[in-house]
Amino acid sequence: MPSRVLSVVAALLLCSVAHLCLGDEPRASELERDSSRLAGEGHDTYLSGPRIRIGLVRGDRSAIEQLVDLPVERALVWGPGIFAARLDAFVALGMRDRIELEAPELAQAGTTAEPFALRALGYARRDDELLVRGDELFASLGLGWHRAQTERLLAGV
């Protein structure tokens, strides 16, 4: 499948996330169906980031558990979103071992993934200082929605 089609499919999934956040489940589901129709079969690894985010917003533990085990592909194309979604999923699922495996490398200063990694490590290590640092970085980057998700993620799915 051409990468531009995958980009459209990913965009539809991200629009679905937005509609879920706005409380419009029917439109979110419609966008998901459209994305599935376009993507067809065999592209789960490419689209796991937005699908994880959908699962997190819905609190769909089983979907998230399946998606976090997929390998990360096309990270250079999709950017840090896949890593942010995975780290948030690890927190929501209470997967401290996975956090310790993946988050330290992503906690590089000045990167978009840094606050997600700090939040995850703060959770895994029960370290409030790391949680506060992650929260401050979310604020400084203007990532208010992600910042507001901390309590929800810490409560789990």
Name the features.
single chain, 157 residues, mainly alpha, 11 helices, 77% helix
Description:
Helix content is about 75%, strand content about 0%. By secondary structure, it is mostly helical. The protein has two domains: about 1-80, no CATH class; about 80-155, no CATH class. The longest helix has 19 residues, at about 5-20. It starts with a helix and ends with a helix.
Helix content: over 70%
Q: What is the residue-mean pLDDT, rounded to a whole number?
A: 92
User: Can you tell me the overall shape?
Assistant: globular
Largest sheet: none
Brief description of this entry?
The chain has 157 residues and is mainly α.
Topology of this structure?
Blueprint: H1 3-21, H2 25-39, H3 44-58, H4 61-68, H5 75-78, H6 81-93, H7 96-106, H8 114-125, H9 128-140, H10 144-148, H11 150-155
